[in-house]
Amino acid sequence: MTVMTGASEQAADIQEMTFEQARDELVRVVAELEQGTPTLEHSLALWERGEALAARCEEWLLGAKRRLDAARSAAAPTAGRGS
Predict the structure, then answer these.
(1) Model pLDDT for residues 24-57, shown as the tens digit of each residue
(2) I want to staple 21 with a disulfide (CB 3.0 to 4.6 A). Which of 13, 17, 48, 51 is the partner?
(3) Nearest 5°: CA angle at 72, between 68 and 78?
(4) What is the pTM of this model?
(5) SS in 3 state form for the chain?
């Protein structure tokens, strides 16, 4: 496991992650939480990181949905002109 840094450094680190990086680390964090950690403090730190990673994944997914919606909207007017 990497050494935990300050919250603002962690947030910046997560904000620079791709969807795949955030998802993969979230899977690792969940697996570590499921195995049990030696201290409550470590568990809380993992939980907080997991929450931030989940939020980052959601940002990526919402962004992808917006792009798809925009592409569909742009294509919709031309699809109906042939009638």
Answers:
(1) 999 999 999 999 988 999 999 999 999 999 999 9
(2) 17
(3) 155
(4) 0.76
(5) CCCCCCHHHHHHHHHCCCHHHHHHHHHHHHHHHHHCCCCHHHHHHHHHHHHHHHHHHHHHHHHHHHHHHHHHHHHHHHHCCCC
